[in-house]
Amino acid sequence: MTSVALLPDPATPLSFETAEAAFADILDGSVPDAAVAAFLTELTLREETAIEIAAAARALRQRMRTIRAPAGAIDVCGTGGDGAHSLNISTAVAIVVAACGVPVAKHGNRAASSRAGAADTLEALGLDLDRAAATAEETLEGLGIAFLFAQTHHPALGRLAPVRRAIGRRTIFNIIGPLCNPAQVRRQLIGVARTDYIGTVGEALRLLGTDSAMIVSGDEGLDELSIAGGSRAVRIGACGEGEAGVRPEEAGLACHTLDALRGGDAAFNAAALTALLEGAAGAYRDAVLLNAAAALIVAGEAGDFAAGAARAADAIDSGAARLLLRQWIGF
């Protein structure tokens, strides 16, 4: 008879060891669904600490299917859940940054709160997700890009999907997803849909030994740097330390309304991304340049947002990003 694990009382903050053990039991299926739902809900209502986030991430990391990655590889990923229904910004950023010569292990999933997630849009562009998964190490080494489909690399999360749907709101698993890249990258640009949480996520990354990271949130509650106005960013590690505001003007970019970034289904978003790589100007391009600049700063390839945006623009305008996508699809 399988023993049933008991979860600690989440009413007060947990130690690292207690939290890690609790999430190990949850991920291993040792806890009844009702108890898992109550535990996760209470953590969310109380608001998770950096220690709890780091401990949960470590438990999930120990259960994920990993791949090898070149030195200096980076990920650009958001928590989702901002409700903006925008075009796929981090997906485009991944392609552009990889075209700048920085290996990008793009972690992503299908749509949750939007109509088209990274997996949906890449599939609409012609990327065979099964083949992309099978050749991820090869494309990351040879082309400098790979897509790491969360459903493939995190089997431990599969059994929790019904519980998370039943809860009907975000849980700690939405936060730790971007912290658990299967390529085990140590450099990350992470978008969080709550400005007041970026410091907490930053501290969790520090506890996990991240080399260089920027955790960002748009003032409107976007899980990315906003092209519409202000954002907050926390830097840790090699790219600097501390929190500061970020505006598009720092990258030499204009502000645009969020409506100008509104996306659609996978086909719509794929067409927009294709147009972007073919040189289309406007809000989408500027949003991608701003966030690509942040990624290049994290990677140590740009000293500031203006230099990063200029380098990202060259990767688009030279045709390098468009060529990279074509090679990746045809790999």
TrEMBL record:
Q: Identify which top EC class this enzyme belongs to.
A: transferase
Q: Mind telling me which InterPro entries this protein's record contains? A: Anthranilate_Pribosyl_Tfrase, Glycosyl_Trfase_fam3, Glycosyl_Trfase_fam3_N_dom, Glycosyl_Trfase_fam3_N_dom_sf, Nuc_phospho_transferase
What interactions and quaternary structure are annotated?
Homodimer.
Any single GO molecular-function term of the entry would be: anthranilate phosphoribosyltransferase activity
What is the protein name for this chain? Anthranilate phosphoribosyltransferase
Q: Which stretches make up the Glycosyl transferase family 3 N-terminal domain? A: 13-63
Q: Does the keyword Magnesium apply?
A: yes
**What are the UniProt keywords, alphabetically?**
Amino-acid biosynthesis, Aromatic amino acid biosynthesis, Glycosyltransferase, Magnesium, Metal-binding, Transferase, Tryptophan biosynthesis
* Residues reported to bind anthranilate 2: R164
The portions of this protein that span the membrane are none
tRNA processing recorded as keyword:
no
Q: Which Gene3D superfamilies match?
A: Nucleoside phosphorylase/phosphoribosyltransferase catalytic domain (3.40.1030.10), Transferase, Pyrimidine Nucleoside Phosphorylase, Chain C (1.20.970.10)
Entry's cofactor comment: Binds 2 magnesium ions per monomer.
Assigned EC number: 2.4.2.18
Q: Which Pfam families match?
A: Glycos_trans_3N, Glycos_transf_3
Cite the binding residues for anthranilate 1. G78, N109
Residue positions binding Mg(2+) 1: S90, E224
In its UniProt entry, the species of origin is given as Sphingomonas morindae
Q: Which residues form the Glycosyl transferase family domain?
A: 73-321
Binding residues for Mg(2+) 2, per the UniProt record?
D223, E224
